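Example for tutorial group B:
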């Protein structure tokens, strides 16, 4: 659990103070049976009332000190564990924010939520228990054994035998528990994933009437969680009674032997009474130690899952490939780029792709579904690095740029519009947090969003629900485009983000953002399925099965690229061509 070292170091003083309070509390508890033995043997047996009073008051004083130490360690334990839990959650969230796409693909979002909540809470509870009970139980157990041996070596043989049996049961219990508790955490992941998928696709579920199917998926995941939990708890259910039985049998044998030794004059009543009290403390401590180990096993399983997040690959950084030269007007260039998704089928999504588009020009990327159009956008943003080949932006290899500086040059309007809870203005200003209200309104006008925004109850200060469910698909897309426009990035990537717009609105958006229409001289990449969108671009890249099928202007591709002409004929044809030229 070395990953928690920095947190313990941060709260070292509070932690050590809390542990010291626990140790002192344990010593106070250990002194109680010894005081009781003195009261019985020195006071009651000999009729010395002053001895009874003196040791009785001493016991009360020790109990009061113990209560003070207990209160202090409770307060310190709560502060340290909760602050440490908050720090751990913050670090996990920061790490997730820096995830590379490969790491994001590897761990499901439902599992990430479980690890940030359930697993972190497990660690927090363990730290809290460590400062309250987990340190006290071993000290009390060992101290009781030592003091019991000092009271009566003859009875201690039974005591040590009982402790050996219970220790063996604890070890076996731990070995059986670890794998089971790890499976419980993964079962929680499955439940969270099912619920998350339903909430994200609730409208689709309703549209297709798939409630029974979703209920079946949840019941399967829920039953699996219940089964795993029962399996892990069965270990405790079996071993806890066995340990209690072992200790109680030991107490019975000690009482019997104590009575025999007392009749023989080899032990006093007070010592037998104190010995039994120590035996009870040992029983309580051993049961607590069992719970400690069970909690430790669960915490270990949670720690491994947390460690997996903290050890995940972060976003790509600069690799020192820059030669110091820049070409401010170079635009975007791909050189023999080949790429396959790390956790995919292994087949290349893009194969030996080469093209160049100059700064201020518009590139349209068109092709059938699954041809690699969106993959090209992900590589520009350096969500992934190509397996071979190079990508240049403004004349610099993207590998020479860290992800942060690279993405400041690029604005993206994704295929699936993602808006967040907050006002319309807050959502648009995501693209440029320092943008003025006038810049935000100008971007919205260019995206043809100002009209419907102005009609909303509070205009740009209107609040959007989470996921913007109170907007239509076309309205979401226009706000998403405005968010990209307000960034003033050198390269604007529109990944099929106008699919929900009508042809007239889409044409107005294209005109507003194109370099020819005063779009700030930025390079625009239009990823689209529509021939009407692609044909007005300066250059058109045609993809099929991840390969370049054509590259050029509309007229050039109509005469040289069969796939492009086929797409054109299926969408527009001769009549559409005459109308478009008019």
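The residue assignment follows.
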């Amino acid at each position: 659990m070395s990953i928690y070292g920095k947190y313990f170091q941060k709260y070292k003083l509070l932690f050590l103070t809390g542990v010291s309070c626990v140790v002192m509390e344990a010593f106070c508890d250990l002194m109680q049976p010894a005081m009781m033995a003195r009261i019985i043997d020195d006071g009651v047996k000999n009729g010395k009332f002053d001895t009874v009073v003196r040791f009785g008051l001493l016991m009360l004083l020790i109990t009061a000190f113990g209560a003070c130490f207990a209160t202090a360690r409770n307060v310190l334990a709560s502060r340290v564990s909760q602050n440490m839990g908050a720090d751990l959650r913050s670090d996990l969230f920061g790490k997730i924010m820096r995830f590379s796409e490969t790491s994001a693909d590897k761990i499901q979002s439902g599992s990430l939520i479980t690890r940030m909540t359930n697993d972190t809470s497990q660690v927090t509870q363990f730290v809290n228990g460590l400062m309250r009970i987990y340190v006290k139980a071993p000290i009390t157990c060992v101290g009781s054994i030592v003091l019991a041996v000092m009271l009566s070596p003859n009875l201690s043989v039974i005591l040590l035998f009982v402790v050996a049996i219970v220790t063996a049961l604890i070890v076996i219990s731990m070995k059986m528990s670890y794998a089971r508790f790890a499976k419980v955490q993964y079962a929680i992941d499955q439940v969270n994933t099912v619920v998350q998928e339903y909430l994200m696709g609730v409208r689709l579920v309703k549209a297709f009437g798939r409630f029974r199917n979703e209920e079946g998926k949840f019941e399967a995941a829920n039953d699996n969680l219940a089964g795993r939990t029962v399996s892990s708890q069965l270990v405790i259910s079996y071993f806890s009674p066995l340990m209690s039985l072992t200790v109680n049998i030991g107490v019975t044998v000690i009482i019997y032997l104590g009575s025999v030794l007392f009749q023989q004059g080899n032990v006093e009543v007070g010592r037998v009474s104190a010995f039994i009290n120590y035996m009870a403390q040992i029983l309580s401590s051993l049961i607590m130690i069992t719970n400690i180990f069970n909690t430790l096993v669960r915490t270990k399983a949670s720690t491994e899952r947390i460690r997996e997040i903290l050890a995940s690959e972060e976003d790509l950084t600069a690799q020192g490939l820059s030669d110091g030269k820049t070409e401010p007007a170079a635009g975007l260039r791909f050189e023999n780029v080949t790429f396959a998704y790390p956790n995919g089928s292994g087949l290349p999504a893009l194969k030996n792709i080469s093209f160049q588009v100059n700064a201020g020009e518009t590139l349209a990327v068109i092709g059938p579904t699954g041809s690699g159009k969106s993959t090209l956008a992900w590589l520009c943003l350096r969500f992934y690095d190509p397996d071979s080949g190079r990508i240049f932006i403004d004349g610099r290899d993207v590998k020479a740029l860290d992800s942060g500086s690279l993405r400041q040059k690029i604005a993206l309007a994704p295929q699936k519009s993602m808006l967040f809870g907050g006002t319309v203005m807050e959502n648009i200003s995501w693209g440029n947090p320092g943008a003025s209200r006038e810049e935000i309104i100008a971007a919205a006008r260019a995206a043809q969003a100002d009209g419907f925004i102005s009609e909303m109850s509070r205009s740009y200060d209107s609040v959007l629900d989470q996921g913007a469910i109170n907007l239509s698909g076309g309205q979401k897309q226009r706000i998403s485009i405005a968010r990209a426009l307000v960034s003033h990035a050198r390269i604007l990537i529109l990944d099929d983000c106008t699919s929900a717009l009508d042809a007239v609105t889409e044409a107005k958006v294209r005109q507003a953002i194109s370099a020819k229409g005063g779009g700030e001289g930025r390079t625009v990449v239009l990823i689209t399925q529509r021939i009407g969108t692609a044909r007005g671009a300066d250059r058109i890249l045609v993809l099929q099965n991840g390969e370049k099928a054509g590259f050029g202007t509309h007229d050039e591709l109509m005469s040289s690229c069969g796939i492009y002409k086929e797409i054109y004929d299926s969408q527009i044809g001769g009549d559409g061509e005459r109308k478009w030229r008019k």
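Residues 2-310 form a domain with the ABC transporter transmembrane region fold fold (CATH 1.20.1560.10). Compare this with the pattern of hydrophobic and polar residues in the output above.
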